[in-house]
Amino acid sequence: MGKKFIWMYIRALKCTGGNTEMNRTSHYLMFAATIPGPNGEVREALKRSHIFAYPSIWPETSCIAAIEAMSAGVTVVTSQSGALPETIGSNDFIYPMNQDMKQHSTLFTRALTFTIENYWRPESIKKRRQMALMAANRYDWGFPGWAEGRIEQWITILTMRMNEFDTPPDRSRHDSDEQYAEALFVSGKRQELRGNSDRARQIYENALTFNPKSSLITLALGMVEVNSPINTRVGPEKIALPTQGIVRLISTVSNTELEPVVKTDSIVQYGIDMRAAFWYKQAYYPDETNRALESVHASNYPHDDCFSEILRATYVPHIPMNVEEANGIVANFHKKIDELIPRVDELVCERIMVFHMAFELAYYDLDFRDEMSKWVQLYMKVFSSTLALTAPSLRNARIPKQRKPVTEDKPMRIGFISTFFTRESSIWGNFGRTINMLQKNPLFEAEMIYYPRTPLTETSAGLSMKPHTNLYLQKFGAGVQDPGLHKARTDIVNRKYDVLVYLDMWMSDDMHRLAVAKLAPIQAYTHGHPITSGIPKDVMDYFISWGAAEQSDREVAQSYYTEELLVLPEHPTWEYFEPRTQNGHSVINNGAKFSHFTRDTLPDLVLPEDKIAANKIKDSNSNIYFCAQAPFKFHFTFDSIIAGIQEHDKKALIVLVDMRGSDTLDNLHTRISKRLDSTSGVDLDRIVFVPRMKHHHLMAMYSISDVVMDSVYFGGDTTSREAFEVGSPVITLPHKTIGQRWTQAYYRMMGIDDFIAKDSNEYVEIAVKHATSSSSYKAETRERIIKLAYEKLYQIEEGVQGWEDMFLDIATRPRTWHWQDEKLV
């Protein structure tokens, strides 16, 4: 293959005018093409060995035998002679070179004895794997057209040596379609290496028309497609170009109709499966993701554990199709992580982004603590040396001690960290004004720490009442050794907060990368994403929650958290909420008016391309049941509730949020539609999916709906309060944890219990009863909800007192962690 491939490039040079120097040296390239590649038989024989003893005394420039041994996963014991250290890398199995043969023999014997005695130690096993990976990554020839390996390096060198040309090769200068396809491939590769991916794709597509059996052209085209922007769509079915590329790549493996054949257990198959797993996960194709991950897991090609073990264990799909599938997913999650944790010292992975966040489990009917704590345990163990750190300026007193009382002269320093400090986010809607109120209190120095999920704006920076104290972190890269992460930790530690409060985790892994380190004496999490952080209590001390939302049995409530549960008083409303509307206008959407919209005017705005669906909403004979939650939150119980409503109200029209149109979420919509369609009693013709709406359109949808449905079991928080602002009754079924109990908590503050169900049947009964009630009763209900919401939920300054008391309490509790220069009692 090597000879043919290099000759292909030489032929392309001559047919395009070539390069004088390259033409002069073409015979050297031809000679290089005759040199055999790695010996598969030798590698297979070495795999049956444990140690490759190589007491070399020659100053070699390289050593193919050692490379073969490393690639087979065999421990190489050798000297520091010549370039051997550079060839096999720095490791414990290289001994000093000595020209005295007796001394050399002694050194070799010691090294070999040490290797034998320590062969089965976890660190030795891990070292062998790292050597095999290094050999595979550094020395594998790869495959023509594939993006990794020595062949691709030669392609790059040879291509860059060619003269610049933009015109395609001339068919008349080639003896066959196959040769012309090869010339097109070279032309396409040159365009690709120059950054002209679209042009390269066009040339590769043309090349395949002349030789559709070429595996190297198929691979090259597939790779360009995979690396295309996610929103690039092709064909009448508007398939995402990366999806088409993945399908194309998968089709090459073991396809005997292609030449040369892409073999299993090769760098190509492993690379294809790895990319397929990543892409299908991003695009929410769970079956395809799992197939790719199982193929990666089964591969005999040397590879790390990032995909084959860690992603395979932590991956949890959205929207299981039935209860049995959901139970199987949870069981496999536990089984795979339980299998990995005892082996964690052997695992090799430097790519932290492969840890799937597994927050989808929050939409399953679980208690969450066991699942999230296992995830964190694996996360902290795999990256123990780089993530699970303690600030060097912190000290552990072992015996709990108190700090001196908080005073105005020595205020308590609190850092609030979030990725969502923006005016329109629900995180700011929940916590923002509470933080501002704390900033007014001279007993506290409350500062805001911004992590840049989106580029920082002047408006966002100005949300703080003391913007000069804001701390702006840099966005982290993908590596565990990323300098941005190190700088962020250093910047936080330098602020010397008494308490560091994380507002939102599980949205991405960035917050967990910070939170698993001890960066302040007291660290706390609260309900930005309302489940436990899963982080051990000696790192994340507290979870801050609200008595009205937690179960009254505090022991039961505590059982859902790894942190110590701090419960703020049930009354009054615990946070200072600002209304998100004012006099029929959206505060979030720059004052856009919504109060003038009706059932006749709103549908055409939110469904401009679906007149049939718009007309269903316009139909005054229908009763509108609207759910503002993303459908990936729906539990099977909610599916049955939809079926029950449609059964008992023949005029029911269910309005749900359409997740399509955001590039990667299309398949989530497909899955929830299929699941609803398979649920007994659900009529998809009486369900309308509305695209995600601008805020003023969303408020109008609440206004025109007869009933708003709280999703089960992961319910609304901000969405429920928004619905109350326009008087919409939200039917809710509270469950176990706070993310399933917000709406009930708000009703408790308002003194309303009409719309709180005890089970799914009562949910249906309450919803249908209200939707089919008289217009006058509905109007009275809206007036009552609006009045009580504004009286009991919004701008309640007394609620901030609970936060102040809580912070002062934990500040003076005896604790073991303190700053080194902190004054203690």
UniProtKB/TrEMBL annotation:
Pfam families per UniProt: Glyco_transf_41, Glycos_transf_1
Residue stretches spanning the membrane: none
Signal sequence annotation: none
Keywords for this protein: Glycosyltransferase, Repeat, TPR repeat, Transferase
Ranges for domain O-GlcNAc transferase C-terminal: 678-788
Coiled coil: none
InterPro entries cross-referenced by the UniProt entry: Glyco_trans_1, OGT, OGT/SEC/SPY_C, TPR_rpt
Keyword Glycosyltransferase: yes
Spans of repeat TPR: 181-214
UniProt pathway: Protein modification; protein glycosylation
Name of protein: Uncharacterized protein
